[in-house]
Specification:
six-stranded mixed beta sheet, 6 helices, eight-stranded antiparallel beta barrel, alpha+beta, single chain
Length: about 475
């Protein structure tokens, strides 16, 4: 009966999970439908800006809930196309929205209450374009290149985030709008940016939107007729800022706290910050020369030898820039597997037994550049250090080691004390300040040569 009970239990869990997922989808769809109704009401009241904003929020909700290819998303694209054409005279943008709707649901039609001959003609053009070659407007590249903006990827919780953009002189910008959405919210707030000098606009995400683990934002440039000329990010694919607790904060989220003095102009919000890592690793390296206690015999032939599992690598670092980490890594190696050496010439003292080395230490200064892909941060950098790295080598011509003095000798081969090389790997943020870490360190050692490769896995805290 136990296998049957297990199968019934698994089926019940699967059914419960399926029912819960369906309930979640139903709630999300209901919310998106309500957003569409609100947008249509605003459109009919000639509040075109508000209607467009609500529909962008509805599309963002579709993406967040995995509904991009559902009918509710197709209907939202149709409504946005109507608003863009009738409210802003943006025919090309409207055609794109209608085509997105038709890609999702080929038989979708205009709402009878919203259709008029002009809108129907644009919709028919979009439907006709689906069957033939896309129009030049549909295949034209986006005007994102007209907006120069260095995305903000990290900042402190509870503080405003300065945002600045440069608009190309070829774009006649009348208005630049910064839209932002706090963690846990599906709606975007808006703030108009100010032109500080010709082509240079600035604004800020308010502190009220930066209390969570992240904040999303995008930038839109509008012309004289409110037509969108260029953008950086969208409501569906916004730029994301990871938020960490402010330095000295008692808790991740503080309310009504006294604001810290503002940083000097030009510094990065939320930077610098500290980095603490702890990893475990194993390695392999090129061994050549003689053993440390079996100094009469050479490694023959030279080759790669294990550094063995048991290396601990704590690291402390400082973010000089949001993507540049300067750090110091300490490498403690526990050496295992070497045999005691038996010598009759008195070189090992009265006991005639020399014990092998049991550990090695080295330290490395590192500079690493991090790349941002959401929660995933690949990195690469250089390293320079000093100390000792040991590998194990077998000396078959010396069968007088170990407790019985008849075992084949396994000795340590030391390298260093100077090391130079590189590092690469990735961090995966489970939260704004806690991450999993995996990396590979490759160094060459001098004056006792080695080429050593370590693979580290561990955890990291960013503060």
């Amino acid at each position: 009966m136990r296998p049957l009970a297990c199968l019934l239990g698994l089926a019940l869990l699967a059914a419960t999970g399926s029912a819960r997922a369906e309930a979640d989808d139903s709630a999300a769809i209901d919310k998106i439908v309500k957003l569409n109704k609100r947008a249509v009401d605003e459109y009919e009241n000639l509040n075109f800006d508000e209607a467009r904003k609500i529909l962008n929020n509805a599309l963002a909700a579709c993406t967040q809930n995995g509904l991009d290819n559902q009918g509710v998303a197709a209907r939202t694209h149709v409504h946005l196309g109507v608003v863009l054409f009738a409210g802003f005279k943006q025919k090309d943008q409207a055609v794109k929205e209608f085509r997105k709707a038709l890609d999702i649901q080929a038989d979708i039609k205009l709402d009878k209450t919203l259709a008029n001959p002009e809108i129907q003609a644009v919709f028919d053009e979009a439907a006709g374009g689906q069957k033939g070659e896309p129009s030049a407007a549909a295949t034209a590249p986006a005007a994102a290149d007209a907006v120069t903006h260095e995305p903000v990827t990290r900042a402190e919780q509870g503080k405003p985030i300065p945002i600045s953009v440069t608009i190309d002189s070829s774009v006649s910008a009348k208005k630049v709008v910064l839209s932002f959405s706090a963690d846990g919210s599906e709606d975007f707030g808006e703030r108009e940016m100010k032109e500080e000098s010709p082509g240079n606009w600035s604004g800020e995400i308010p502190a009220s939107a930066t209390e969570g683990a992240k904040v999303r934002y995008y930038i839109e440039v509008s012309g004289a007729d409110d037509q969108t000329l260029a953008s950086k990010g969208t409501a569906v694919a916004p730029l994301v800022v990871a938020l960490r607790p402010a330095a000295g904060a008692v808790a991740p989220m503080r309310q009504n706290a006294v604001e810290a003095p503002k940083k000097e102009e030009g510094t990065e919000t939320g930077q610098p910050s500290w980095y603490f890592g702890l990893g475990l690793c194993s390695g392999v390296g090129w061994a050549t020369g003689t053993g440390e206690i079996n100094s009469q015999d050479h490694v023959s032939p030279p080759g790669f030898a294990a550094a063995k599992l048991g290396q601990v690598v704590p690291e402390v670092g400082y973010f000089v820039m949001p993507q540049l980490l300067v750090s110091f890594q300490f490498r403690y190696q526990l050496v295992q597997g070497a045999t005691a050496f038996f010598a009759t010439d008195g070189s090992c003292g009265a006991s005639m037994v020399c014990s092998p080395a049991s550990y090695a230490v080295a330290g490395f200064g590192r500079a690493s550049w991090l790349f941002d892909f959401g929660s995933l941060h690949p990195f690469a950098g250089g390293t320079l250090g000093g100390g000792t790295i040991r590998h194990l080598a077998t000396f078959p011509s010396e069968p007088h080691c170990g407790a019985n003095h008849t075992s084949t000798c396994i000795d340590t081969v030391a390298s260093g004390p100077i090391f130079v090389g590189g590092t690469g790997g990735m961090l995966y943020n489970l939260s704004p300040f806690f991450a999993l870490m995996a990396e590979t360190n490759v160094v060459a050692g001098f004056t006792k040569f080695t080429f050593n490769v370590d693979i580290n896995v561990g955890v990291a805290v960013e503060y």
